């Protein structure tokens, strides 16, 4: 098979890509440019969740197999128990790519609400849906920690 001037794509030797890198533009290597966003840290994950108790999560700490082996590390106790909290900066970037201010962002699997947080920060309307009421509670608390922007007041003048 002939590839006219482009090398065929071959994944890295270990078969994986870092989970916090997006490639956007082309370089001479025929791969896309990397767009790096660090993973959500504990402060970002738990912002607005002060009223929730810390709970054991098998996806935190050293990760695999904590619950099965009944290992209880201090790092395995978190307030935001959602296993895949995305960085707000990543969701902001993606929202900017596909929408403009005042448009509606639909997140059918809202989880802990990161997409809605990013939408609010970017002055987009949002709808979040999830079947897990505990995740919805986490999302609502996280959203309550970000003030709503008020650009102008409607009504009569004060003169």
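Q: What amino acid sequence fits the structure above?
A:
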């Amino acid at each position: 098979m002939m590839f006219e001037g482009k090398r065929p794509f071959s994944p890295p030797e270990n078969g994986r890509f870092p989970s916090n890198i997006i490639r956007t533009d082309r370089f001479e290597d025929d791969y896309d440019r990397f767009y790096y966003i660090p993973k959500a840290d504990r402060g970002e994950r738990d912002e607005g969740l002060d009223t929730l108790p810390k709970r054991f999560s098998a996806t935190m700490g050293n990760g695999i197999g904590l619950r099965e082996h009944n290992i209880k590390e201090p790092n395995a106790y978190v307030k935001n128990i959602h296993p895949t909290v995305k960085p707000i900066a990543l969701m902001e970037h993606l929202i900017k790519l596909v929408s403009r201010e005042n448009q509606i962002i639909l997140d059918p699997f809202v989880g802990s609400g990161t997409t809605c947080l990013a939408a609010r920060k970017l002055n987009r309307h949002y709808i979040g849906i999830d079947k897990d009421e505990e995740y919805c509670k986490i999302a609502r608390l996280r959203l309550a920690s970000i003030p709503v922007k008020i650009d102008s007041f409607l009504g009569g003048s004060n003169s």
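Q: And what stands out in the fold?
A: The two ends are 77 Å apart (CA to CA).
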